[in-house]
Amino acid sequence: MKNMKSMYNPRKKQKSLFIWLLLVTVTIQAQDIHFTFANAQKTIDDGDYYYEADVMIEASEAFKLGSGQIYLTYNPEAFGDNISKHNGIQYSYESGYVLGENYVLPAYKSFIQNDNANNRVSFTFQQGVSAESMSRENVTTTVRPLFHIKLQFVDATKDPMIAFEEGKVYQDQFFTACGSMLKSGAKAGFPDCANLPGEQLINDTYDSSGASFQTLGIEDQEVDNVSLYPNPSKEYFQIRGLENSETTISITDINGKLVQTIKDHALGTTIDVSQLQTGVYFIQMDIQNYQKSYKLIKE
Asked: Is residue 45 very low, low, confident or very high in pLDDT (cuts 50, 70, 90)?
């Protein structure tokens, strides 16, 4: 009996160790990613009305983003059916957006958009460089802009109803970055997703509340007349359309960091931005309990 006991204990310990390692592995791979909207606004370009917003991403643990696919739904009464087919939606990813990163070569490529239904559109992207080529984790525990959307209204009086599609079949579509096809270990090269694939990211969650407009205080038609000029700007800009009003102006960078606040600003007068670095900024106007954001490109 003594010999049997001595043989049994090591096996029991090995089994316990295996189960522990399995649980640790599952825990490490079970990264949560979370998507939100920010900077939702109605804009005018050459007389046409548009809905614009940023799609934001954050994670429970930092990682290097590989490929992904995200689904958005919308109100066909506001934008029409099958907006991708009818060129009613545009995606952009300037410098400062995750998908706009560049490591000698663009970090991401093969951008594809498709209509999945008359009121749903998908957006897909692939890696352009390997994980070793990326100098840092580009999805972190701090929310960052992933890409920008711009939809053209067919009826600007209708509710946009922009939202993430949250059905189970549409989730878990993102992966960490693939390894390099270079065998030397050099930190360069194209991704080899067939032999050195990334890990599938699971437990993704969505919050569509930031996609809605705030409509308090001022009539929409008055705010629709407000614009930034010049935009892009090198040294200054001014807010036109409500020149007889005063407001609080907040300027934030692409990562949401507040860089300047101007209280009791007289609309129509210039705002000096010559000290700001080149890039994309968001100008928030807070007037009569109404808040509205505008995107400014600083050259």
From this structure: confident
